[in-house]
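Key result, reporting period 2: structure in, sequence out.
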């Protein structure tokens, strides 16, 4: 069902599985925001407060709560500040400070608190086609507003593996040394976001890390959820883009927080994704087995896809704790119970860069 990348010395690495069943959103949020021992020990060494810019998306709320729980468990008195364009009322009760701010407005950005550690998550993908100007504004002008203001902060910039070229399956995924070759205006604007941070790092020695994520998921969204919903509904699964990477959102969030140890000038680049290159066909077949209904398909696999090799990041940030088998099992149980989904397809099949 999978192709597993081994360690650099050729040995296979096996992660422990999280066998806890997940029955509702509250339990899902609890599992995703439960800090591991390594993260708790790390935050004891982190100086300064944390601010998450663009905290209102799919990942931001759980990232903020993971940080808050890690700080509390570590016994350190640090603030977690969540900044979003819309009110973040769901984060106020658990103890995260929230600020409403339009990051496109330099004056509003200038009123944000001066914080030592920043995770930059603001971005626009879906709906880019037909409104390319807005995509470029959010993905390039917003980074300018932030970097010009927070020149002394450590910044982890959440980017995307879409900046890489489509990779031949036989050659493995793109490494951090693979030259960018973005396809489509969305991916181009994401590389533009990185270049803005690169510029300020060069003129102010700002310390930055580009975190090229490919792709995070939980039980409510993600490539595996897209595949599972098709199989569950008895609809054919398109295998034209036949392979992909995925990582559990809880794992990617923990690695994001631990990456502050590796910000640098010039910026360090790190790929973050799961340890396996997954087959769309094989994943769909497994969902079919779990749903007790056969998976059907349309199209045929090509020999390439947007794939990333994340081994270099594992050496510094740790390895994912949740395997693809566990994610598939959780998602199948979730959908059978009628669990909530976000209704935001990833469009992972897209090959022309138009979202």
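The corresponding designed sequence is given below.
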């Amino acid at each position: 069902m999978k192709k597993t990348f081994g360690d650099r010395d050729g040995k296979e690495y096996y992660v422990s599985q999280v066998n806890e069943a997940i029955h509702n959103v509250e339990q899902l949020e609890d599992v995703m925001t439960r800090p591991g021992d390594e993260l708790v020990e790390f935050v004891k060494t982190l100086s300064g407060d944390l601010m998450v810019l663009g905290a209102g998306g799919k990942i931001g709320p759980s990232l903020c709560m993971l940080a808050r729980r890690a700080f509390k468990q570590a016994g350190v008195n640090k603030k977690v500040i969540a900044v979003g364009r819309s009110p973040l009322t769901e984060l106020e009760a658990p103890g995260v400070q929230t600020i409403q701010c339009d990051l496109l407005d330099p004056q509003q950005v200038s009123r944000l608190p001066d914080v030592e550690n920043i995770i930059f998550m603001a971005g626009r993908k879906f709906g880019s086609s037909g409104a390319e100007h807005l995509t470029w504004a959010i993905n390039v002008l917003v980074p300018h507003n932030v970097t010009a203001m927070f020149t002394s902060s450590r910044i982890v910039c959440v980017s995307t593996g879409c900046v890489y070229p489509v990779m031949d399956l036989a050659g493995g995924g793109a490494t951090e040394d693979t030259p960018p070759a973005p396809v489509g205006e969305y991916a181009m604007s994401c590389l533009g976001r990185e270049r803005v941070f690169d510029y300020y790092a060069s003129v102010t020695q700002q310390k930055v890390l580009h975190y090229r994520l490919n792709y995070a998921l939980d039980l409510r969204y993600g490539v595996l959820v897209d595949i599972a919903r098709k199989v569950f509904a008895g609809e054919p699964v398109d295998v034209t883009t036949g392979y992909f990477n995925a990582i559990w959102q809880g794992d990617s969030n923990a690695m994001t927080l631990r990456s502050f140890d590796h910000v640098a000038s010039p910026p360090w680049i790190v790929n973050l994704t799961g340890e396996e290159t997954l087959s769309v066909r094989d994943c769909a077949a497994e969902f079919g087995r779990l749903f007790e209904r056969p998976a059907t398909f349309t199209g045929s696999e090509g020999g390439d896809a947007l794939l990333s090799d994340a081994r270099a990041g594992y050496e510094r940030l740790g390895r994912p704790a949740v395997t693809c088998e566990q994610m598939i099992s959780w998602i199948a149980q979730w959908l059978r119970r009628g669990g909530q989904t976000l209704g935001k397809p990833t469009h992972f099949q897209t090959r022309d860069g138009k979202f």
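The two ends are 29 Å apart (CA to CA). Residues 1-18 have pLDDT under 50 and may be disordered. This case is discussed further under Risks and Mitigation.
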